[in-house]
Design a protein that fits this description.
The protein has helices spanning 6-11, 67-72; strands at 25-26, 28-31, 38-45, 50-56, 60-66, 82-83, 90-91. The chain is mostly beta strands and 96 residues long. Strand 3 and strand 4 form a beta hairpin. It starts with 5 loop residues before the first helix and ends in a 5-residue tail after the last strand.
């Protein structure tokens, strides 16, 4: 499965666009199906393939993360990060 489609790219605002918002919208969710790791993206820079959003690798934090790193990760049995196809955009505060 492709992690980031053109349709989703169009929905993601550019980096810095939500900086003034207290509770920006998470547009897409990625997760590790074989272990720890969930990422919710609110912004995206298509030139650098960098997201801004919330990452939870045992404790949640706001920051930047890379599409390339998500795509290159291979866990047990070679299973990689996946996109939650059932996720609907919601305020970041509701992403747990």
């Amino acid at each position: 499965m492709k992690l980031l489609t053109e349709e989703i790219k169009k929905q993601l605002p550019p980096l810095g666009h939500t900086a003034e918002q207290t509770d920006p919208m998470a547009i897409v969710k990625f997760f590790n199906p074989t272990g720890i790791g969930t990422w919710w993206a609110c912004e995206f820079d298509p030139e650098t393939d960098i997201f801004f959003g919330k990452a939870d690798l045992g404790f949640p934090e706001l920051g930047s993360f890379s599409l390339q790193e998500l795509e290159s990760y291979k866990g047990p049995m070679g299973i990689g990060i996946e996109r939650d196809i059932h996720f609907t955009p919601k305020p970041l505060s509701q992403c747990k």
